[in-house]
Amino acid sequence: MAALGHSNGELDLLEIDSGRKLATWPAHPDEVLSVTFSPDGTKLLSGSKDRAVTLWNVSDQKKIASNAEHRGAVCALAFSPDGRQIASACGADTIKIWNTSGIPDGALTPSMSYHKAEVRTLAFSADGKTLASGSDDNTARLWNVATHQEIASFPMGSPVRMVRFSPDGKTLAIITRQGKLQLFSIP
How far apart, in whole angstroms, are the C-alpha atoms of residue 72 and residue 156? Predict the structure, then answer.
């Protein structure tokens, strides 16, 4: 299954093999900029220009929870591997980590920090203890999820568009806007 966000605020669920549309629903009052599935595939997270992070039930497209705590459009999202936390980033340089344990009562509980420019990409390590972020400030950064402290910074010389951990968590792949790929050993 795949998910697409649209400029009119709608979300689509698609069957990957055929491209057949499984569902479409109005998700946000403004453009959807980011979507990601939970590790078990039962939930979908969307982020929008409306500053909202919204969690959806995939099976019936019902809203589980939503929060508009960001100061700008939500450009990047990531689920922790166990699905208990999500990270969201916005155009106003802010990264937040949300504890999903409050989901049954509709609450997402914020916590976390910042970059010096728009954050474009996020990724959790396989153990969920580290969050990687990439920004228009030409850096990728590693954060300790528990303490919210920066672990490392990787100057890239141009805006960062993608960060991903290797499955063993020992390497961080970073891609810049110019298409340059660099691999870094994790400290």
Answer: 24
Helix/strand/coil percent split, the chain, to 5: 5, 50, 45
Residue 170 confidence (pLDDT) above 80: yes
Question: What pLDDT is recorded for position 107?
Answer: 53
| CB-based contact 13:25 (threshold 8 Å) | no
Of 34, 134, 42, nearest to 75 by C-alpha is 34
Cβ proximity of 53 and 35 under 8 Å: no
- Cross-strand partners of 119: 135
> Is pLDDT at 175 greater than 60 in this prediction?
yes
Which domains, ranges and CATH numbers included, belong to the chain? Answer: 2-185 (2.130.10.10)
Place of tokens 């999820």: 145
Which pair of structure tokens corresponds to residue 166? 């290797």
- 147-156 pLDDT, tens digit per residue, is 888 999 999 9
φ, ψ for residue 103 (rounded to 5)?
-55, -40
pTM: 0.89
Distance CA 119, CA 110 (A): 17
Pick from 17-26, 65-74, 118-127: least confident: 65-74
